[in-house]
Design a protein that fits this description.
The protein is an all-alpha fold. It has a domain at about 50-95. Helices cover about 55% and strands about 0% of the residues. It has three helices and no strands. It has helices at about 1-15, 55-60, 65-95.
């Protein structure tokens, strides 16, 4: 029984080696996979803390209240212009 099994195994092994058929070509498929990619909201060159001309130090260094008032108004106008320029981009990040 064992001899017959070994004999059959040898016959099948010899028959498998004797085939001249080329191996089948591999099937190559291109599959598109959609994966969400995180994109930074703010550009890389965006200055989160810009250098405004009117600072606390310049307000403290003002000689009198009138000068401080003029400087604070200039600082307000400068910051307001920055917000008007960058507000649409900042709001787009929030949404």
């Amino acid at each position: 029984m064992i001899a017959r099994s070994i004999g059959c195994a040898l016959v099948f092994a010899a028959a498998a080696c004797a085939t001249d058929a080329p191996p089948p070509e591999p099937i190559i498929e291109t599959v598109e996979v959609r994966v969400p990619v995180s994109v930074p909201c703010l550009p890389k060159d965006f200055d989160v803390s810009p250098d405004f001309r009117v600072t606390d130090e310049t307000l403290r260094a003002a000689p009198d209240a009138g000068s401080r008032y003029v400087l604070s108004f200039q600082g307000y106008r400068e910051r307001d212009a920055w917000f008007v320029q960058n507000l649409p981009m900042l709001l787009a990040c929030v949404e």
